[in-house]
Amino acid sequence: MKKALAIAGILALSITPTASLADHLEPKESEIRPGGDLAHTNLSRFRLSGANLSGANLSNANLSNANLRVANLRDADLRGADLGGARLSGTMLLRADLSGITATNLRGCPSSLPSGWVCENNALIQR
Question: What pTM was estimated for this model as a whole?
Answer without folding.
Answer: 0.78
